[in-house]
Each structure stands twice: as C-alpha cells, then as structure tokens.
Known about the structure:
Helix content: 25-40%
Number of domains: 1
Low-confidence stretches: none
Strand order of the largest sheet: 1-2-3-4-5-8-9-10
Largest sheet: 8 strands, parallel, barrel
Order of helices and strands: EHHEHHEHEEEEHEHEHEHH
Shape: globular
Distance between the termini: 29 Å
CATH topology: TIM Barrel
CATH class: Alpha Beta
Number of strands: 10
Amino acid sequence: MSFPIRIIGERINPGFKSTRALFDQEDLAGIQALAVRQAEAGASWLNVNVGARAHTDPGWMAQVIRAIQQVVTVPLSFDFPSRKVQQVCLAAYDAARAGGRLPIVNSITEHRWDLMELYGEHRFKVILMASERVEDGVAKGNKTADDIHATARRGALRLMQQHGLAADDIFIDMSVSAIIADTEGLNRSTVQAIERIGADPDLKGVHMMGGLSNIGQQLPPRAVDGSDLKHALECAFLTLTVPHGFDTVLGTPWRSYAPLPDDDYVLGAYRHFLAQSGTNALRAVRKFYKA
C-alpha cells in the first residue's frame, strides 16, 4: 500500500549533477527525456529550475519551458524567488498543453509577497513557505510549531481573502530539516505544526507539502535493521504526517513511499528522536544506525 500523496517531480534542477550536465550542454532532448520519465513515473507537476542562468538568460528559461511542454501534459512548477524570472516563466507557460491546469509559483514568503503582483495578469497555484516570517520588517526563521502554524495561517488567509485563491490552490511548504544535527527540535516543530494546520478549520482544503531529501543527509546508508535508512526516514515522516493532511512531496517520482508498520525499527527510532533535544537528540540519531 502506498501513501495517497502527489509528487512534484524535482529532477529538472541543476542541483542534480546529471541535470546540470544537460543544462551545460544545452541538451534540450535530454531535458525532455527527463521530463517524460518523471511524468510516466506519476508526477503530478514537474518542478523547473535552471539555476542562476534564469536571471541572465531569460530566453533560455522560456526555451526550456516550451521544450518540456512539447513532450508532457502535466503542469509545471516554477522554482525561483525572483518576480522577474517568474514573469518569464508564466508568460512562456501554455496552460492548454496542460489541459488547462494551472502552474505553481514556488515560492511565496511574507518578505517575498511581491510575487503575488503577477496574479493580476496570470493565474497560478502557490507554494507558501511557513518556515519564515516577517517581524518588525525583518525576515526571521520559524523554529516553533506555534510560529510555523501562525505564519501558515496568516499567509493562507491573505491569499484567499486578498487575492481570491481557492484553498485547493495553496500548498504550504513545511520545511523538513536534516536530523543529523537537529538539536533544537526542528523536526518535532514541523510535525506538530502539521498537526495544528490540519486541525485548523479556517485552513481546510489547503495542502501541505515539502521536500524530504534533506531528512537523512549525512547518515549511513543502512539502519540497524538493514533497511535503506534515508528512504525509511522519509516514510517514517510521512507515516506520522499524512494522516494530518501532508499530501504532496517535492521529490523523485520513481521513489515509492509507503506507510511503515507500528513496530518498524526506523519509525520507532524517529518517534524517540522527536522527543529529544540538545545532546540527547544527537544520541538518539545514533540509534538509527548503531545497535
């Protein structure tokens, strides 16, 4: 049994060495093949990020988008903090080739709200980051479940009430941090915030999402029970959060995600880790890979 989640395909991004090589060689056929592979693996959207070149060569950015849409019908997600770049992306996007489905702008924050000025000329779905808030005019990172929930609530209601977005068009990005050095309970705060957002009646219908690839960074490949530790950690996170409304993953579509049984070793170790802070959290991390 797999989770009832949707995948935003992450591979069209120079953060992957193989994809960076495609960009460096301007290999549009290779980029198209990567898009097709993700779509055939079940991606609901394809994230598109060509890196810094998007700022210096907007024509290339538009060319990549058009090339991708020539070979797939899934909608796209544009992963840039710049309004100028997003304008190019949205202008190049052909909704008809995606069956009329809207693209996603990734991502809006309280200190990057100018991206919503594009909503008058274009229509799109929004990824709203709940990890950052503005306080006294200064952007600050959120570390507590209360702050994450408050930021998500404030932003989502603003999108619905001031800009007219439907709840279904809003994805709240719940940052999932690496456990390797999480001494401040950031994973715990994220899990608790997902529970609170999922229980908030004013946020009914909004989606919660995140990238899971960070969670197992720098850990050994295998857990004590012999399982793929990074993948098992991702499934452990989903096992705890999908029941509360976490329903979208920015990830690799051909990775399978399934609920872990209650007696699963990694799930138990993750629950134990979530209850710890400081040096106790560091000790708890070792339990994943040391008997």
